[in-house]
Design brief:
Length: 96
């Protein structure tokens, strides 16, 4: 029983030694590694007029799911409501 408690104590001491505390170093202003990524693309010019765009044509094996900017979506809303109303009156009179 003594050896079990000693081995637990040794294990705890070893594990506490592995859990060293790291010092927090605050980032320097304008540091390269913390800067947002630079994007090298430009958005295509918006064209007004028709819904058809030549660059958005689909091939025979392409998925028809809308995933690009400017794709036409059809939204189907399905709604169902139910209600009921009931009123009743009972009147009675008796005389003795």
């Amino acid at each position: 029983m003594k050896w079990l408690s000693k081995s637990w104590a040794v294990a705890v001491v070893l594990l506490v030694g592995c859990a060293g505390r790291q010092e927090f170093i605050p980032p320097q202003p304008n540091a390269e590694e913390y800067a947002p990524p630079k994007l090298d693309y430009t958005l295509p010019d918006a064209q007004s007029g028709s819904l058809y765009r030549h660059q958005y044509t689909m091939t025979l094996f392409q998925d028809r799911r809308a995933y690009r900017v400017g794709d036409v979506l059809t939204v189907v809303l399905s709604e169902e409501t139910s209600s009921s109303k009931k009123a009743g009156t009972k009147f009675g009179k008796s005389s003795a």
